[in-house]
Amino acid sequence: MNGITPNALGLIGETPLLALSRIHQGPGTILGKAEFVQPGGSVKDRAALRVIEDARGSGRLAPGQPVVEMTSGNMGAGLAVVCNVLDHPCIVTMSEGNSPARARMLEALGAEVVLVPQVEGTPGCVCGADIRAATERAIEIAHERQAFYVDQFNNPSCVRAHQMGTGPEIWAATGDGLDAFVAAVGTGGTFVGVSRFLKEKNPAVHCAAVEPQGAEVLAGKEVDKPCHLLQGTGYGIVPPQWDPGLVDSLLGVSDEEAARFRRSLADEEGLHVGFSSAANVCAAVKLVESGCLGLAPTVVTVLCDTGLKY
Ligand SMILES: Cc1ncc(COP(=O)(O)O)c(C=O)c1O
């Protein structure tokens, strides 16, 4: 029989590239990689699948062994999907500052959710210190339960997922017509993996990284606003797997701009996505309007996750 996907893992990757022609009518074209269509609802499904497959393949993760990770929601959702299909218990630690809808979503997906009290941020705004507290709890649980610790910030599989998947998919769809790639940075897996692949194909592809205004560490600026709306990105650190040699420009996006673009993506394009997706589209528009890419460039960016859990 044709057209049958054997399980939910077959829904990860090969996402559509959507023309955002109502938000940006030209000159030039902005295309959004629709990562939110995956079963965990975000771009992190790709990293989750690669991490678990690589760990199983190398024997670091035994059949049935529990998996633990710190998450702000999306990596946990991706891991829950993958762990369910491959029969691993999934435990996620998460700062209490994340929206309650996230914990509900993770529990609905079958993950065991361990909430960690906030250290610095306020509800809805999770800071670097909150992330560090949730990470410490994940490491403790890995020891207590003999669980495999994913460690998404340091795990090279998270970059490889995009170097082997997202990057080649974007290249196959656009090829020589591609002028730029724009992505917000959390662990940096998406930006580094995709940019590395695209620059190998064509070093002239402009790769722009997006940061929340006020937490622009990659741009070398003082962090004066560690709490911002772009959940999943802008942690106030240079990610361990960061590769500055891939960066052609760094673009800051304010909370207000992200909120405005999020509204427009829903109202004009019918896409209810999260704030980092909106920041990416906002930054792509800024890049096109700057004129640095020529008259009518083709720019690909990432629609990282669904807006339903915000
Ligand atoms: C909503 C959202 N956007 C963007 C990102 C950034 O992805 P990466 O970790 O690959 O840099 C994440 C990562 O968790 C995320 O959850």
Structure, explained:
This protein is an alpha/beta fold and 310 residues long. It folds into two domains: 8-39 and 166-303, Rossmann fold; 44-149, 3-Layer(aba) Sandwich (Rossmann fold), CATH 3.40.50. The protein is 38% helix and 16% strand. It has eight helices and ten strands. The protein has helices at residues 44-58, 74-86, 100-108, 128-144, 156-174, 189-201, 255-269, 275-290; strands spanning 17-19, 29-34, 67-70, 90-95, 112-116, 148-149, 180-184, 206-212, 249-253, 298-303. Strands 1-2-10-7-8-9 form a six-stranded mixed sheet, with helices on both faces. Strands 5-4-3-6 form a four-stranded parallel sheet, with helices on both faces. Helix 1 (44-58) crosses helix 2 (74-86), helix 5 packs across helix 6 (189-201) and helix 7 (255-269) crosses helix 8. The radius of gyration is 18 Å and the shape is globular. The structure holds pyridoxal-5'-phosphate (PLP). Residues 42-44, 72, 74-75, 184-191, 231-233, 274, 276, 304-305 line the site of pyridoxal-5'-phosphate.
